[in-house]
Amino acid sequence: MRRRPYRRRRRRSASGHDRAMEDQLTVPEACRLLGGASTWRTHPVERIGLPAIKMSDGPNGVRGDGLGTRQTPGVVIPAGIAVGATWDPDLVGELGDLLGTESIRKGAHVLLAPTVNLQRTPIGGRVFECMSEDPELTARLCVPYIRGVQAHDVAVTVKHFVVNDTEVDRMTVDVDADERVLRELYLRPFESAVREAGAWGVMSAYNQLHGEHCAANRWLLTEVLREEWGFDGFVVSDWFGSHDTVPSALAGLNVAMPGPQTIFGERLQAAVEAGDVPAERVLDLAADVLHLADRVHARELSSEREERTVDEPAERALCRRAAAAAMVLVRNDGTLPLDDDARVAVVGPNAADTRIMGGGSASLQPLVRRSILDAVTERFRHVVHETGVRIDRMPPPMTDRVLRTPDGRPGLLVTFRNGQDESTEPVTTEVAASSMLRFFGSAPVGVDPERFHVALEGELVPEVDGPHEISATLTGAGEVVVGDTVVLDDPTRSLPRGEMFFGQGAVEQRAVVDLRAGVPVRVRATSTGRGGFNALRIGLRPPEPADALERAVAAAADADVAVVVVGTNDEWETEGEDRTTIALPGRQDELVQRVAAANPRTVVVVNAGAPVAMPWIDDVAAVVIGWFGGQGMADAVADVLSGDVDPGGRSPITFPRRLEDTPAWPHYQPVDGIQRYGEGLRMGYRGFAASGTDPLVPFGHGLSYGTAEWGDASVASSFGHGSTDGDVEVVVEVPVRSVGDRAATVVVQGYLTAPDAPVERPARWLVAWDKLVVEPGGASVARLRLGVEAFRRWDGARGGWVVDPGRYELVVASSSAPGAEHQRVAIDVPG
């Protein structure tokens, strides 16, 4: 391939300090700067006064350094899909502001968030982390999120650029998508993040696009991102997601993470010396990092400052309010809200073990731990509880409730040594509160992060008699022994790799051990670490009462109302792997069906981060989708069930009745390493509208406890006539009036159709919405504001955007479903 001559970029925005450092930086220093120094930090350049820049995972909190025994607890906001379900840009801006504050507390200059990939299928492992299946909803919500974070001089990294929409072969899969599909759907949120929000950072995706890894894709990183959109920030690779030195440097990758071994550094310097990468190119890439350091005040705010945990009542209240604003009331026969004096049976696996976030890099140590059972028990006077069924995919990790160290403290004693065995003297010891540990950039001071050994010792004190299932996996060489049973023995790291720990953990090993309540059993485990990573997990599943389900049904039958809390957890929904089904894990469907048969006043709360099937939906009184709602979720559920708060959410994704109904499903599996986006523009609700397939929960659907009537929609201004709002070309107004005795939450949605378009357009596409709360007896006006981008389409032949003149129709509706349509308004676009 012929390489075009490189021309030095002119920086449009750089401080005098930036330019002074640029002029001093040498090429070897620049090469080193572009490769990460460690898991979360860049290299300092002490000669010119440039300190390290610290990054931290998001997007539903700020984790800080810790992944091992020392994790700094932090605020957990609702997961991305719940943020999308709020349909509330102002509220999302508040959450972004909170994350900016948390980033400062954790000493982070860069937050690795937000995730703005689209939910192409309901089974993607990171669906919970994304905001929506719709590009407009995602775009409109990511802008205030970014502005809120960056208001604190903390950089975001909008991710994952682009089409990182599946975890199947995510490091290698090659996505084949038409440019029009890319432009109108998958690139749209990134464009808004850059052009409207002014994002300071972008993270490249793991996958390939049209045969090139995204971290080495010049069309993405230079032609679209910088030249077309005017991006003046930095591009960081996803962790271990950069592969080739020369293509990545020429494409525009600024920082390869994590360090210290990366494709840049010495390898980049060698490429410069060989003439494969111009020295000017390296200096330009480094200039972007210097500009980042200036923006985030890295010289004044050290990356080594102490991480802090702050528990602010106002922040708790915000998280609780956001969780309620995201909750989607799918159906309600009048059972909700519940009476204060109702006898409530709370059953289901997620009642006492409520999940507030998904698995993988989005997880962190929560500041607040509360279950739905805790909150409901506090809110209502008469509550009984039965679990009914379990959903653990694997035996869950043990906690300090059943673990104690050799000297009697809660937890397990962890001993660290440098090297790969126990022949050296211990460097330090710590106490772990759980039997799942991940050391990724979080080894204690004095421990070599590239080569270290950990040993766990302690006792398990069982709570019940009987056969206990024990599981074990680890990333290095080692063993796991419980009592006299060797659960895992892998001294040479020869076991095949499984799914845990991003595919680096050994295939899970299991054993059954007969234990007695209160009788301690010795636990010992070892694992070696390489490349900064060491992780192990020991799980324990006690025997389940044989009559657990029957007890739950009996409790429900004896109550005035049954609240069944079903869902998934961070083992079923996690980075690194997709789900294989939308069915609820375990026997949860059976639990709901039997409880509903015993008590017609059955309310189901779905605690999951992605769509699930509900074969019982017509047999229950009410369904509330609570998502992974963050630290305020439990109290928000109690607020909604009691009627203290109106459920404010609308679904940001389509729930199919069957997985096979998903438009992208026929094209889901890669063929010969290539994943073709064969559904084209018919992704998500657009595909359901085109085929006429009836979904389980339509995109945009959600009910309120209040009742409102919508009046006739009218065009208040159109294409230069009456509009005074900058980029807004069309304003459609819809009067809304409360007709009930409770406040009504209303989301008036506008979908465009183009019946006379010269080329295929989606059957309908979301272009605007307005979220209102109308008090009893009150009235308001919803305003749908459409900019020119609402009408545009990508013309591949012209290589640009076009707006076809002619008649369009704005479908004013309460959801994307045909039956939710309120009125159609004609809009004429002049030629």
UniProtKB/TrEMBL annotation:
<dbReference type="InterPro" id="IPR017853">
    <property type="entry name" value="GH"/>
</dbReference>
<dbReference type="InterPro" id="IPR037524">
    <property type="entry name" value="PA14/GLEYA"/>
</dbReference>
<comment type="similarity">
    <text>Belongs to the glycosyl hydrolase 3 family.</text>
</comment>
<dbReference type="GO" id="GO:0004553">
    <property type="term" value="F:hydrolase activity, hydrolyzing O-glycosyl compounds"/>
</dbReference>
<dbReference type="InterPro" id="IPR013783">
    <property type="entry name" value="Ig-like_fold"/>
</dbReference>
<dbReference type="InterPro" id="IPR026891">
    <property type="entry name" value="Fn3-like"/>
</dbReference>
<dbReference type="InterPro" id="IPR002772">
    <property type="entry name" value="Glyco_hydro_3_C"/>
</dbReference>
<feature type="region of interest" description="Disordered">
    <location>
        <begin position="1"/>
        <end position="22"/>
    </location>
</feature>
<dbReference type="Pfam" id="PF01915">
    <property type="entry name" value="Glyco_hydro_3_C"/>
</dbReference>
<dbReference type="InterPro" id="IPR001764">
    <property type="entry name" value="Glyco_hydro_3_N"/>
</dbReference>
<dbReference type="InterPro" id="IPR050288">
    <property type="entry name" value="Cellulose_deg_GH3"/>
</dbReference>
<dbReference type="InterPro" id="IPR036881">
    <property type="entry name" value="Glyco_hydro_3_C_sf"/>
</dbReference>
<dbReference type="InterPro" id="IPR019800">
    <property type="entry name" value="Glyco_hydro_3_AS"/>
</dbReference>
<keyword id="KW-0326">Glycosidase</keyword>
<dbReference type="GO" id="GO:0005975">
    <property type="term" value="P:carbohydrate metabolic process"/>
</dbReference>
<dbReference type="Pfam" id="PF14310">
    <property type="entry name" value="Fn3-like"/>
</dbReference>
<keyword id="KW-0378">Hydrolase</keyword>
<dbReference type="Pfam" id="PF00933">
    <property type="entry name" value="Glyco_hydro_3"/>
</dbReference>
<dbReference type="InterPro" id="IPR036962">
    <property type="entry name" value="Glyco_hydro_3_N_sf"/>
</dbReference>
<feature type="compositionally biased region" description="Basic residues">
    <location>
        <begin position="1"/>
        <end position="14"/>
    </location>
</feature>
<protein>
    <submittedName>
        <fullName>Beta-glucosidase</fullName>
    </submittedName>
</protein>
<feature type="domain" description="PA14">
    <location>
        <begin position="407"/>
        <end position="556"/>
    </location>
</feature>
<keyword id="KW-0119">Carbohydrate metabolism</keyword>
